[in-house]
Amino acid sequence: MPGHSQETLDTARTYAAELSLKMSGCDIPSDVAQLAQFIVSLIAKMPNPIPASVTFGYETAIADVASKVVGLPLCRWLSGRASGSVAVNALLPSDIEALRRVVPDFNRRGYTTYKIKVGTGHAADDIALLRAAREELGNQVRIRIDANRAWDFDTALHVLKDLSVFDIEYVEEPLRSFDLHRLGELHNRSTVAIAIDETVVDRTVWNACIRTDGVVAAVVKPTVIGGLTECIRLIGHVASIGKKAVITTCFESAVGTAACLHMAAAQSEALLPSGLDTLRFLSDTLCDFTFAVERGEVTVPQTPGLGIEPRVINGC
């Protein structure tokens, strides 16, 4: 997707076609461990690195077929301890009037966690936005904010000290890349917990950041990280050091969103509420899949595989 992906659609199509040729005659993996090995071996056959989104798409397709073969929903194929529903957060508008308009509907759906984008304007605008959110939502729900690396250290410290009075669950990626080594200091001086997201593109930096005191969670996006099994590996690492993960979509169709939903169900014990509420921004999700939120949770399809079927479009 332009503005969200490094690769173009044409690039993704080229790699997808090459992967299809490499997969010819391969056996379907029987479990998650075999799936991980299959993906690693498949990638090794390619002359150039595969875009993460293409890996995610192919791994999802393979896992869908593999779980259908044994008659299990994908979440239960990934883990025998999968939950039947997944807690999700709601993404609130960054405009105060728009926020006030959508809150009643979100309240009816029972959301207990909300996310707001900050850092795109003046600090005073962010303060006013968070104040309005707390006034509309009350104090019984969690609010997390995402700065998308908008601030240098001094700006982040100033803004977060002001925003801390609104009881922020965490701030996601508050610092620009050159200040990431100061995440711990930012937490200590602002008291606001921190989550990391974009940092995952550099695994050395990511590993250092996730171990930092005050960094409480890692956002995990299969489209960016490169598939289900690599995300599960990272979630396991995060859990092993006492931190949490947040599975999040990147404006995928219903197919990718359903895959994220199943993975979240399979990894539920290691997660905070997931950020999967992006289908409503698409004009067509490519499937007749209803992402219905009740009591702040989405029920996971329990039919074999993903539990959804893409519609046929233009003969494809």
Q: Describe it for me?
A:
The protein has helices spanning 9-23, 32-44, 52-69, 74-78, 96-108, 123-137, 153-163, 183-190, 203-210, 222-225, 228-240, 254-266, and strands at 85-87, 90-92, 113-117, 142-146, 168-172, 194-196, 215-220, 244-247, 293-294, 297-299. With 316 residues, the protein is of the alpha/beta class. The protein folds into two domains: 9-77, no CATH class; 79-299, TIM Barrel. The strands form two sheets. It has a seven-stranded parallel β-sheet. Strands 1-10-9 form a three-stranded antiparallel β-sheet, covered by helices on one side. Strand 9 (293-294) and strand 10 form a beta hairpin. The longest helix is centred in the first third of the chain and has 18 residues, at 52-69.
How would you summarize what this structure contains?
The chain is of the alpha/beta class. The protein folds into two domains: 9-77, no CATH class; 79-299, Alpha-Beta Barrel (TIM Barrel), CATH 3.20.20.120.
Number of domains: 2
CATH superfamily of the largest domain: Enolase-like C-terminal domain
Total helices: the number is 12
Q: Please provide the count of β strands.
A: 10
Major sheet details: 7 strands, parallel
Strand content: 5-15%
The CATH topology of the largest domain is given as TIM Barrel
- Given helix and strand content, the structural type is alpha/beta
Mean pLDDT: 92
CATH architectural name of the largest domain: Alpha-Beta Barrel
User: Would you list the SSEs in sequence order as H and E?
Assistant: HHHHEEHEHEHEHEHEHHEHEE
Residue share in helix: 40-55%
How many angstroms separate the termini?
20 Å
Strand order of the largest sheet: 2-3-4-5-6-7-8
- From the alpha carbons, calculate the radius of gyration and give it in angstroms: 20 Å
Low-confidence stretches: none
Q: What is the molecular shape? A: globular
The CATH C-level name of the largest domain is: Alpha Beta
